[in-house]
Amino acid sequence: MAYSSPGETLQLTCLASDGNNDPLTYTWTATGGFFKGTGNAIDWIAPATEGIFERRVKVSDDEGLFAQKTIKILVKSFNTIPGDLITHYPFTGNANDASGNQLHGQDLDRKDPHHDFSVFDGPNVARATGVQFQRRDGCRENL
Predict the structure, then answer these.
(1) Which of 38, 69, 101, 113 is deepest in the core (most CB within 10 A)?
(2) Which of 23, 26, 65, 60 is nearest to 44 (CA)?
(3) For residue 77, which phi and psi values (nearest 5 degrees)?
(4) Are 90 and 98 within 8 A, CB to CB?
(5) From residue 65, how far is each of 10, 15, 18, 23 by CA, in Å?
(6) What domain range is 44 assigned to?
(7) Rounded to an integer, what distance in angstroms lies between the CA atom of residue 128 and that of residue 18?
(8) DSSP label of 61
(9) Which residues, in sequence order, are CB contacts of 52 under 8 Å at separation 6+?
(10) pLDDT tens, the chain, 143 aa long
(11) Cα 77–chain centre separation
(12) Number of Cβ within a 10 Å radius of residue 71
């Protein structure tokens, strides 16, 4: 599911074609927020309130044929919470703590003789089955 902040403007584009090359009409609707513009590329301004909203585009030709797609979006204000940062793992191919607190991780994959940390590629994780974190007090925590 996609997300945005309240009041944020997102550009939406619908890619559609007609087999007979008939002209297409794009009708945009949403359960919250509002649209600016017309055609296949418009702006959607998220509502000021938080929640899950649906945005729909219906593409029609002059013969009455149509296709439509609905996409949900989470509108939420992700404000920072005051406090001290404990750890930060930016997923740069290792388990190093970038917060400065030296809470580095360790790969426990015994099949890997080098014990290199698992590779992270966005939402994809490879070999992240055995990660161990060592706290400052020397205790180790397995994930």
Answers:
(1) 101
(2) 26
(3) -90, 115
(4) yes
(5) 28, 16, 10, 11
(6) 2-75
(7) 45
(8) E
(9) 1, 72, 73, 74, 75
(10) 688 999 999 999 999 999 889 999 999 999 999 999 999 999 999 999 999 999 999 999 999 999 999 999 999 987 777 777 777 777 666 777 777 777 777 655 545 454 444 443 344 334 434 444 444 444 444 44
(11) 14
(12) 13
105 forms beta bridges with: 133
| Close Cβ partners of 33 (under 8 Å, ≥ 6 residues apart) | 44, 45, 46, 47, 53, 55, 75
Neighbouring residues of 130: CB distance < 8 A, sequence distance ≥ 6 = 107, 108, 109, 110, 142
For residue 26, the domain's CATH number is 2.60.40.10
Of 36, 55, 75, which residue constitutes the final position of a domain?
75
Q: What's the total number of domains in the chain?
A: 2
